[in-house]
């Protein structure tokens, strides 16, 4: 039996590059180098048939530890809650007011990047809090 060594998370979206660049900023990810023979991703995109231009974009963890994120254009818009979402870990190891402050600060930073803060969810009011957010196309994710 083969062993899984890497995982890619794929997002359906309307504007792949826009959503990918948002997640680069959220996670500290980078855009990978373009395919061999192309100076940049714009040159690669121009080489595609018109109907495929702008149809996909990716970002990667520069340390290689996190999964590759891939964004693909689809014709339909988002209509229901995500079945899978990302949890962005903030304030790991922090407790109490320090943890809540870290969550609020990161939420404010992401709102500045175009995210929407939806609501705070709490289990024990302090240590199990998370903030439900939406990315630039309305995909839900949690700050926890």
From TrEMBL:
InterPro entries: Glyas_Bleomycin-R_OHBP_Dase (IPR029068), Glyoxalase_6 (IPR041581). PANTHER family: CONSERVED PROTEIN (PTHR35908:SF1), HYPOTHETICAL FUSION PROTEIN (PTHR35908). Residues 8-143 form the Glyoxalase-like domain. SUPFAM superfamilies: Glyoxalase/Bleomycin resistance protein/Dihydroxybiphenyl dioxygenase. This is VOC family protein.
């Amino acid at each position: 039996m083969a062993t899984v060594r890497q995982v890619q998370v794929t997002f359906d979206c309307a504007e792949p590059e826009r959503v990918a660049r948002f997640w680069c900023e959220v996670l500290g990810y980078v855009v990978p180098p373009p395919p061999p023979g192309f100076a940049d991703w714009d040159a690669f995109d121009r080489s595609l048939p018109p109907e495929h231009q702008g149809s996909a974009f990716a970002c990667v963890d520069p340390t290689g530890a996190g999964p590759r994120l891939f964004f693909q254009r689809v014709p339909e818009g988002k209509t229901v809650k995500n079945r899978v979402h990302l949890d962005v870990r903030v304030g790991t190891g922090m407790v109490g007011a320090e943890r809540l402050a870290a969550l609020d600060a990161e939420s404010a930073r992401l709102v500045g990047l175009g995210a929407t803060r939806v609501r705070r969810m709490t289990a024990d009011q302090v240590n199990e809090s998370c903030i439900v957010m939406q990315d630039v196309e309305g995909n839900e994710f949690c700050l926890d």
